[in-house]
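ok trying this again, last paste got cut off
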Amino acid sequence: MQTRDAYQQVIEFFDTIYPTTAELQSDIRLCSKVVKYPKRAVLADIGQIHKSIYFILKGSIRTYYRDKNQEDITSWLLFEGDLAISIYSFYNQAASFEAMEALEDTWVLVLSYDNLMNLYLKHMEFNYIGRRLTEAYYIKSEDKVNALRMLTAKERYDHFLRRYPTVLQKVPLRYVASYLGITQSTLSRVRGQK
């Protein structure tokens, strides 16, 4: 992935939310960087302060935490066009209870906390873009919580596949099961009902 193409991809995405000025586009290029993470690379770990936000250009990321038995529980599966962020750690600049891992070779645009705050101060239109991205994150979060509370395992799986029809080609089934809040054997049974 060419760096110039990566920045253009991000700018075009932001422009779908609100038109960006040439000055904002220039500042985004100056204060962020495009990074390629190889498969299984940990972008940020449990116990660390997550100092950056990641806009996924290509690839996929899993965020996870460890339960009381020290087993990994997948909290998010994120793909191209998604933001990968530990909200609590990033905005509080406090130690995180979750980690982020690349599920495949993944290219991201990385923006540090300080640079994000500076962009917000300097560019009012970026505040609007940031607000809309935050709203989308919380809508997605509530959608997931509501699915866990109100849908059967099969309904959760069907809902997930409608949202991400090609995910099973990229993500191991154990992570999908964990994300859906079901066991792998339940996921196998649900998939067999198709």
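PB: full thing came through this time. The chain has two domains: 3-135, 151-194.
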